[in-house]
Amino acid sequence: MTHTLDNVFGYRGDAMHLPVPNLTAALPFYETVLGFRVVSRGDAPLPHAILARDRVQIGLEENGGDPTQDGCAFHVRGLTALFDEFATRGLAKAPSDFGVEQRDGVAWTVCYVIAPDGLCYWFGERGIT
């Protein structure tokens, strides 16, 4: 595979309890557009699902949190190819939406995606510009 999600970091330190207002409504975006698969799902103590793709897992749950104040950072290999895949799956982002950010003295090529549920995702590839 020419592109992968290699690591994930939750903005609030926890990528396994990301708040969504409606789990059933949220899942199609993650499966169809971002290419995740549901590895488990349950209703107790709250409606929740664990999703996996490549080397990462995230968790979505109806926990009453504000999704507009949360999300994850994904370290990526093959950022352009990844977004080409996302585009074929229905995401409207172009390479012109990419930027460069400095993190600890290292340049990262990055792009942000806001999910329909309000969660924000940072996708970054180290050292490319």
Itemize the secondary structure elements and their pairings:
Elements: E1 4-10, E2 18-19, H1 23-33, E3 37-42, E4 48-53, E5 56-61, E6 71-77, H2 79-88, E7 99-103, E8 106-114, E9 120-126
Parallel strand pairs: 2-5, 6-9
Antiparallel strand pairs: 1-6, 3-4, 4-5, 7-8, 8-9
Query: What proportion of the residues form beta strands (DSSP E)?
Result: 35-45%
Could you tell me the CATH topology label: 2,3-Dihydroxybiphenyl 1,2-Dioxygenase, domain 1
* Rg calc: 14 Å
Whole-number count of domains? 1
Query: What CATH first level would be assigned?
Result: Alpha Beta
Sheet bearing the most strands, described?
A: 5 strands, mixed
* Strand order in the sheet with the most strands: 1-6-9-8-7
Order of H and E elements: EEHEEEEHEEE
User: N-to-C terminal Cα separation, in Å?
Assistant: 21 Å
> How many beta-strand segments?
9
Pfam families: Glyoxalase (PF00903)
Domain VOC: 12-126
Organism: Gemmatimonas groenlandica
Protein name: VOC family protein
Q: Which descriptors would you attach to this protein?
A:
4-stranded mixed beta sheet; 16% helix; 5-stranded mixed beta sheet; 2,3-Dihydroxybiphenyl 1,2-Dioxygenase, domain 1; alpha+beta; globular; 2 helices; 129 residues
